[in-house]
Specification:
By secondary structure, the protein is an alpha/beta fold. It contains nine helices and ten strands. It has a domain at 41-121 and 188-274: Rossmann fold.
């Protein structure tokens, strides 16, 4: 595969089983080959300060092939700053980021060739048909014979009928779907989505969720997603990482995190933190001696 010009370019928190996989499986682009990686994204000791405000305070994060991980927290928790450091848009004051074996800043261009990024607020070209828009990005990604990739992406998210639709005719939900398809044309090892399901109708949100789960399962793509939609996160992700005041305060399966905070679900945890609730999870009381 020729060297791509990526449109963005220029230790785990808790013990986990070894998820390295055989050649051709998740962690490797099944159609193009490439080195096998056990950790697609790793960040260690990330710190970022803006004048007198400590926005991110020692964040460690690792995401393995095929994992679907949510980065959560109320406004001001440090999500956006962390996300921008993971993409190499801003540099940490201390700590480091590595994607697919390439460490920032020196390896940022090579790393971002392995990354797809989409956000609900990103614009699409309105005077192009969806097929033309996706073709343009496929060429930027250096994808050979992109027609098959485009057709497969549209089919994965159950919108093949959008191929010849003009950008001006797309609904907000359809724009979201096309943006995600654009971000996955080059079979990225890491897909980062910022608020992809904001204000989506339930049927479109279902297409997003099912398409992402299929992508992670079949291609081994690692997913890192930020969202305020806790219901969708609980359905989609197999692991959630909660930030509060720039620090990771929980990293576990969704139901386990809710249980540790004494809440019925992730929305309860989110509201608890947004309301200034205590940052540390509640502990179950041990049996007291008589």
């Amino acid at each position: 595969m020729p060297q791509a010009t990526h449109p963005l370019a220029g230790p785990p928190d808790r013990p986990r089983a070894d998820t390295s996989l055989p050649a051709g499986g998740p962690g490797r682009d099944p159609s193009e080959g490439g080195p096998l990686v056990q950790v697609v994204l790793q960040a260690q000791g990330l710190v970022k300060r803006y004048r007198d405000k400590l926005a991110v305070d020692g964040v460690d994060l690792a995401v393995r092939p095929g994992e679907r991980v949510a980065l959560l927290g109320p406004n001001g928790a440090g999500k956006t700053t962390t996300l921008m450091m993971l993409l190499g848009v801003i540099s940490p004051d201390s700590g480091w980021v590595e994607v697919a074996g390439h460490r920032f800043p020196g390896g940022r261009s090579e790393a971002l060739e392995q990354v797809g990024f989409s956000a609900g607020y990103m614009p699409l070209a309105e005077r192009l048909r969806v097929r033309e828009f996706l073709q343009m990005y496929a060429e930027l990604y250096g994808v050979r014979h992109p027609e098959g990739r485009i057709a497969a992406g549209l089919e994965r998210f159950r919108v093949p009928e959008l191929s010849e639709v003009m950008g001006t005719e797309l609904s907000s939900g359809q724009r979201t779907l096309v943006g995600i398809i654009k971000a996955t044309l080059h079979h990225p090892r890491l897909l980062i989505l910022d608020e992809p399901t904001a204000s989506l109708d339930p049927d479109v949100a279902l297409r997003v969720r099912n398409g992402l789960m299929e992508l992670c399962r079949e291609q081994g793509t690692a997913l890192l997603i930020t969202s305020h939609n806790m219901v969708e996160i609980q359905r989609l992700c197999d692991r959630v990482v909660f930030l509060s005041a720039g620090r990771i305060i929980a990293d576990d399966e969704p139901d386990a995190v809710a249980e540790r905070f004494g809440r019925a679900d992730l929305e309860g945890v989110f509201l608890h933190l947004a309301d200034g609730g205590h940052e540390e999870p509640r502990r179950q009381e041990t049996d007291r001696p008589a």
